[in-house]
Design brief:
seven-stranded mixed sheet, about 240 residues, 9 helices, alpha/beta
Length: about 240
């Protein structure tokens, strides 16, 4: 156990009640008759079959991202960390005029993501850019400054936590006023609160830094929410970019 009495990051924390609730509610909220249901199932299975880690967002969280995109009328979505494109497909599924730009550092993972995107019939609306986010984000920023791209409405950050603040800071600059920047996996079974562990664990230091820096950032208004469900106990940071 860590100094806060919470489980180390590599231990999955589950409760049969959390799983039972998800198993009951999700088939009602997102039945198999929905247009992208089979594509999302395929993305999960194909990703595992091709050797990707089972670290995609949970189905309910994917649906939450899709609902958030609809609430703010997002048409241009940026994702940092594609993995198997499960969350990518969720966000792109919210409308025929929604376009997603997703950044993935690993070429093999990017190839699997493109397979899943093609199966979903979304290759014309999802762009997977291969490269490190710390290199790609400045390129996207330059394209926006040159008028080659518009700012994004919604940015979803689900990549290495050591660089979470770097990605957030970059994202705010290229997300429109009243747009949303969302950073996943910042609670990590309560490790966010472990000051001592942060001194020796870069992931914990990274999630603490992004929360601390966002709290001082006058460009945004933000909240951290803890979540439980079939996959784990975790949480996310969500911020709205200030401005008219």
């Amino acid at each position: 156990m860590s100094s806060t009495g919470v489980a180390p990051a590599y231990i999955v924390e589950q409760d049969p009640r959390w799983t039972a609730v998800d198993n009951f509610q999700f088939p009602h909220i997102y039945p198999a008759s929905r247009p992208y249901h089979s594509a999302l199932e395929y993305a999960l299975k194909n990703s595992l079959d091709k050797g990707l880690e089972d670290i995609s967002v949970a189905p309910s969280q994917g649906k939450f991202l899709a609902v958030q995109c609809q609430i703010i009328g997002a048409k241009r979505v940026l994702e940092v960390g594609t993995l198997g494109a499960y969350s990518t497909i969720w966000m792109a599924s919210t409308g025929p005029d929604v376009k997603v730009t997703s950044i993935e550092i690993d070429p093999q993972i990017a190839e699997v993501a493109r397979e899943n995107i093609a199966f979903a019939g979304l290759s014309d609306r999802i762009e997977v850019i291969l490269g490190a986010a710390r290199d790609v984000l400045p390129q996207i920023t330059a394209e926006i400054e040159q008028g080659k791209r518009e700012k994004f409405d919604f940015t979803f950050i689900d990549a290495d936590k050591e660089s979470a603040w770097l990605y957030f800071d970059s994202a705010v600059k290229i997300t429109r006023p009243k747009g949303v920047v969302y950073v996943d996996n910042v609670v990590r079974k309560g490790l966010l609160a472990d000051e001592e562990l942060a001194k020796r664990e870069p992931i914990v230091e990274g999630i603490r830094r992004v929360v601390e820096e966002v709290g001082k950032d006058e460009r945004v208004d933000a909240v951290v929410l803890q979540t439980v469900g079939e996959k784990n106990y975790d949480g996310f940071l969500m911020a709205v970019v200030k401005g008219e």
